[in-house]
Structures are given as C-alpha cells and as structure tokens.
Prior knowledge:
Elements: E1 11-14, E2 20-25, H1 31-41, H2 48-56, E3 63-69, E4 74-83, E5 86-94, H3 103-117, E6 122-128, H4 132-140, E7 144-153, E8 158-166, H5 171-176, E9 179-180, E10 183-185
Parallel strand pairs: 5-6
Antiparallel strand pairs: 1-2, 1-10, 2-3, 3-4, 4-5, 6-8, 7-8, 9-10
Amino acid sequence: MTEHPLLMSPIRFAAPDGSLRIVRSAQRPDLEAICQIERAANMSPWTQGDFEDYLAGGMDGPIVLVCCRESSYPDAFAVGREISDEFEILSIAVAPEEQGKGVGLILMMSLLRWAKSRGIARWILEVREGNTVARKLYASCGFFETGKRHGYYADTNEAAILMTGESPVPWEVRQEMHCFRGVKLFNQ
C-alpha cells in the first residue's frame, strides 16, 4: 500500500479530556479495530472488504486515517477521497466509549488539512438526517446544508442531508494557533 505522503508522520494531539492521541494513516493491521468501530457506530456498517479496498487504493484511492491513544489500537477512523476539485468525507466513526472527547473533531480537522494541502478548497459530505451530533460537528467546522436526499438510507428510509464547506473556514485561524476547542496539536 502506498501511503499519502503528508500523512506518513503521525499527528499528535491532546484531546480536551487530557488524553494524548495520534492520527495516522491506517494500515492493514488496523482492519479488525476499524471494522469493530464501524459495527458499533453505524446501523448499516461497511464490510471488511470495503475497508480492504480503501486501504489498497494507494495515492489515487481514498485516504483512511485512524486515531488512537499512544501505543494502542485505533478507537476512531475517518475516510475521505478527492473527487475532481472537491474532497468528499465518506465516513467518520468513533468507538462509543470515546465519543464526546474531541476525537471526531480532530479526525475532521486532519481530513480537511490534508485536502487543503492538495489545493482542494471545497468539501462535501452526506449525513443521516437524524444524526444531530455529526451535523453539529460539521456545522462547527464551517459546513452548511445544501440539500436533502429523501429515503437515501435503505435500512431506515431516512433522508441524507447534503453538506458543503469551503476554504477558508472560520476555524482555520484557530488551527494556525495549534488549538481548537481544547484540542492541542503538537507537530504542525
């Protein structure tokens, strides 16, 4: 697997709860933990084969990040991909026991930082209409609702809310100061 060059060096940070975390590129040994998180966090989880395909994508495929405590297995992951002049956030999932600790935010910031480094200034995603926690996270990162796909999720017939964000977003200034909402980044 070819890693994305900007993510070969892990990003270290202290979450608001004081725990030290690392965001790094996902590797094949992370698959079991990623699949466990996916099953715990999502009503219609992706398969292990889906994640194997993403990890095998190399430079042209989706970017897969994991977040973990130092010397530990992943407790969260994020997947995104470049589509022409946009960056699509495909998934962010955090293990239930780690939710509410700033982990989703740091994964979001890491994906958007990577996209910005590639010259991508427009970001898109879709989220379940009922996932208010995720919608608030995305809105706090400068995303706004642009549409709705009724009945998009086959398992519940729930609508997907389409969201878009563009650079610069308000939090970039705070990110430059290496701090955002209690999340302290160490190796910028």
